[in-house]
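Retro notes - structure team

What went well: the batch runner handled both jobs without manual restarts.
What didn't: labels got mixed up in the shared folder, which is why I'm recording both outputs here explicitly, each with its sequence directly above its tokens.

Job 1
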Amino acid sequence: MHFGLLTLLFCAACSGGSEQPDNKPSTALPISQDGAINVYGELIDVREVAAGDTDTYVYPINEIYYFDESLPTELGKLKCAVSVKELKGVEKFACSEMCGVYVASTAPIKAVGWTDQNKDFTVSNGGDKSVKYSLYRYKITTPNEWIDVPAVEGQTASLLLFGRDIKVQGTITYGTTIAKVDELRETMVANPSIIRLPNGELLVACSGTLRNTNGKGAWVNFYASADNGATWSVRNHGKIEMSYESTFLHNGVLYIMGTNKPAGDVVIHASYDNGYTWTNAVDANSGLLLEGAFHSAPVPVAIWNGRIWRGMETNETNKKVFVMSAPVDANLLAASSWTMSNMLIYDKNWPVDGKSLKGSQMIEGNVVITPDNRLVDILRVDEERYGRTIAMVDVVSSKKVTFDPTTGFHTLPGGGKKFTIRYDEQTQKYWTITNPVDQKDYGKKFEGKYASGIKCGNIRNHMVLYSSRNLKEWTEEREILASDDPFFHGFQYVDWIFDGEDLLAVIRLAAPEERGLPTRQHDANILGFIRVENFRNN
């Protein structure tokens, strides 16, 4: 399998020719102490090397193989550049200083300059599918010169390149990076939301950019931009603990609403200084609205019939759908101001796309006012086969929601993943950004997690703008971002706002970077920002 987009977008610095040094032993050159080894290749990760540690995996995706005790001692304190087991691995490398570089291969490297160390070791799976590697050393005599890794006939698993400081080159930047997780694969970006403050600043909230060390929920991290998204600074880190949070302005006050932890209580906090400080939700008079186990996402609020509304769900295997509302002039920090509707549960026998989709649920609802001035809660239908269905729940009153499965399901490509719906007065259209499934990606496979093929629920490598006049039929307007790699690219959980002729979007973004790969497309390593210019002009 070859991911052409990633390969074509390879930095100009990598275009240098291969060095052809003599084949004399390179014992005088140590493994680089201070200089970085830059590597380039398809889906390259940088992983720790630990002999005998069965929890330190060698290959991305494939959480089986580990370095056993046969690993040569000189490799034990290094890092390893490696690709998915089925791919070649590093294709080019360069070092900032003269040094020797170790490369391990499953087949002989016969090219000039590569010295066989006469040391073999095993990458084990604890069974009969272990992989045998032979160790080679290359002498770099010209710093910063790119060296081609020769083609190896009979290679059965990714090449392994070892070094103390390895950086992946040739990765793609999508939009503007607001922040990255502080420790790759140790945490993930979640729940991004964006708002324009009264002073003109942009404020973005998310969780996961900083690792939470207290063993509880996730800290909310706030970032602000005073130049329309060109640059970002930290507004507030780790002052409040929330999940599934939405930011919104109401009566001149900035609020953030969600749960106090995953599967936690419903809470709301207020800020009177543009997000620098926040109130604490400690009881029913200060923002603790509902006790229990609840779920949601960064979703819009709506003003309708003199009340402010937000969609919620319970947090259990088959989540129950409900809405919460309060009078527009009420104290939103008081639990007594809020009314909770009845709860709806997804019936797994309901036909979706003409079939019964076992394991489905309705989650992450958007409260939206319809063209005929009704209020509905539009939710993603979470299923693995199609990923194109939404459910429209009718909000009858503050205490009653209903759903008719014979008329309530509609088609929205990408409706199986989280989306935000907003109404544009100028076009009199509803707009959203989703992750539709490209059929050529469906069923792609790699050994390990995706041995049976990737399912549509995990395919998030296309980010597309859609519009609708009635919330039932949706038209594709344009593709915003795309990659041909569904395993490590995810342009997901997009929240966005109107900004004149443009849309401003914040993204839970998974993508390869200098440090290596995210765990998978779902586990985002980047908080990203993008401007969609002239969105009304297709």
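Job 2
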Amino acid sequence: MTDPTQTWPADLADRYRARGYWRGETFPAMLRDRAAAHPERIALVAGDTRLSYAALNDRARSLGAGLLALGLRPGDRVLIQMGNVPAFFEAVFGAFAAGLVPVYALPAHRRTELLHLAGKAAARAILVQDRIERFDHAAMVLGLRDALPGLDHVIVAGTAPEGALAMDAIAGDAATLPADPDPQSVAFCQISGGSTGLPKLIPRTHDDYIYSLRGSNEICGIDADSVYMASLPVAHNFTMSSPGHFGALYAGARVVLCPAPLPQVAFELIRREGVTITGLVPPLALLWLDAAERMPPALPSLKLLQVGGAKFLPESARRVAPLLGCRLQQVFGMAEGLVNYTRDDDPDEIVTGTQGRPISPDDEVLILDDAGQPVPEGTPGNLLTRGPYTIRGYHDDASANARSFTEDGFYRTGDIVQRLPSGHLVVMGRANDQINRNGEKISAEEVEDLLLGHPQVFDAVVVSIPDARLGERACAFIQPRDAAPTPAELRRYMRGREVAAFKIPDEIRIVDGFATTAVGKISRRQLREILRADVLAEEEKTA
């Protein structure tokens, strides 16, 4: 198993350094320097817990030294699965301080995803929260040990069961920590929301990711007086870096951890903590708007609501300012790199009708037709990009890299966009078979593979359907073998496969068979397009 790497061609790397994008900063130095500059300033708020920069840095460094004392070595990968709790930050920055490489799993992930991610990363330890929303994550992770022979430690934040180590008990001498890593080395691995199979690992370097934080902070107006509320899961790329909690900590600002993004919880937290900025996916934004319409929430501190993860329709976007009393910022990006923002000085029609323009002058954007040729300006086409914070390849996945990257390093995003003369992008949809459900990216192929494991399923096709509440919902078409399983049986089966709940299809339809061409073949993509069109036509008739 090779170590994760990320390398740019020398000419581009030289350009990015010369233009000040890459400054040789690292994550362990980031927290250490902020703690030295303002030790008593509050870094994290979670309920009644308030952690200063000094306290967070001290705990992270002690934990990092303790992890090394367990036998872990700089460069080892550690899988981290936690919710919106301070322990996530202690674990992540502790890993950074020790030279370890965090691999992020989402709270919704279950046995199937964790086995894949830990195996792919060759993780030597898993740091997990004991329970998230009543689910016993500690027990789940302990159950993985036999299937992961390279896994040496299960470390639990909270109550540690027999066979696991309590994270609170792990401590060491910070003097044993290694020197700061090479800024071009991999800081952590995110997970893709890819269109095929299980998630891919996205190696991000210190230099590239910190540049995206710094650039995001400048665009979003984040400074030491800002208060950022993490409404979405803290392991989401949006919540980490746009500008997210990492951007807020880079600025020396305060991060407030929201336990649940429901209006009745979030509005009170915004008022109590003086939150100035937060980010939501469109379905949650709609929930907040509907709540505000019934009872104006009075959120005087809130200056900016970011909406990203999926397209936010103009009709909804226009409701933000009147109902919540703050500015809207649309965000469109991906864990692989490119991030677009609307700006404070953009006209209203741009803010409500586009998904922004890139962070960097060196974000190269191509919009091409299916033959790989540039489309006329203003014509929708396939989005490709490269730049100072867009990766050049996934970890240990040659076939995915061949599909997703051009020979000259452009990333094929899978998005269909239209570019306006101003450079702003309007997202038109996806070109591949990815479903964007409530901001969670689902591979149609992965869900099909899971369904095909049911003994009574002969074939399965999963398609995305536009949905007013979720953005898109997943609809599964099932061709049975003999006796057709019911939708309820199939959902129970999916839950039994121990996958993230958001991957279970919202709608299941039993069909006799699928269309074929004259020669008896049809591509999966064509088939998905046909079935999607059938559902949309049916819904149009009943609308």
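One thing worth noting from job 2: The domain at 27-39+51-180 is CATH 3.40.50.980 (Rossmann fold).
We'll revisit the folder naming next retro.
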